[in-house]
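sanity check this:
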Amino acid sequence: QVQLVESGGGLVQPGGSLRLSCVASGISIRFSTMAWYRQAPGKQRDLVAQVTRGGSTGYADSVKGRVTISRDNAKNMVYLQMNSLKPEDTAVYYCNAALGAYWGQGTQVTVSS
């Protein structure tokens, strides 16, 4: 059984920071492509950031320069550090593994004054 569990979401003011965490079980993040997606109400689920098995990272244009994806292989976890948050960043954020094969339940991020 593969399980991804996100945490760290919440309410934050514009310009604030948040770090999302995803702990994986049943799969090694060291040998899997890991990604963060987000989905706002009424919109499609979009890729936010990705890190490959080789360690290469990629980011959506909308968040580039403000977010960083990282891994902790010893803890089998992946993180998304988000800075300078904007209201348009409000969404449910999902952890994804193995190029879309597995999904977490999501964690809500709300950016509002």
Summary: The longest strand covers residues 18-25. Residues 22 and 61 are 22 Å apart (CA to CA).
